[in-house]
Amino acid sequence: MADALTFHYEVDGGNFTSAGQASVQVKKNLRQLGFDPETIRRVSIAMYEGEINMVIHAGGGVADVTVEDGCIRIVLTDHGPGIADIDKAMEEGFSTARDNIRSLGFGAGMGLPNMKRYTDEMQIDSAVGVGTTITMKVNY
Amino acid sequence: MTINEIKTLLDAQMLCGDDPDCEIQSACGSDMMSDVLAYVKHQAVLLTGLVNPQVIRTAEMMDMRCIVFVRSKQPSPAMVELACESGIAVLATSKRMYEACGILYANGLKGNGELDG
Asked: Is the CATH number 3.40.30.10 carried by domain A5-139?
């Protein structure tokens, strides 16, 4: 693949109902590009969890998905509160989500671990009070 | 088991679905979408008592073919439309989660671990 193909999305932080729309679109785009179902599934689940996180915790953000030679790179950037303790945040079951989020089916402390589980590489850059950038790579 | 057989076994109402003869191999039941995203592999049916658009999106992300709303929960028309657009059948039953899962399991529909071998 000569030129990298990038998809850019704005994730609306105020709207839980529309959360996940960017991931749905990525899934459609990758399908049109002819990627295998398992790769599409891994990318879309990881991105969906990230998108939900941005809506729940950070008031939205932006998502960039780039199709590179041999991998798909997902970069999620927000200007939310940041993550104070990344190791703690990566523990399954640890969550800072409010109870009302749990009643919506999320906030079980599985988001970040899931993103790691479904990707080949994941890096979290975060500063409290500044925001968070998560970069994930899925090899194909 | 087909979607139509699930509908009959659960005495459910079909709210959308254009492929009732679609063959289903396995199912899962949960109200926590995070858990569905974490633990479910190749499950084609989601039984849930949670009603919001993220249920449909979660099912779509997991390549599921059918959602069964239990405990007489009724999804909104917008949710049903979203499911239709994604090719996901939607059923609604008055049965509770435990009972609905039990009926399907007793009739041969397997869960996660059994398929993983």
From this structure: no
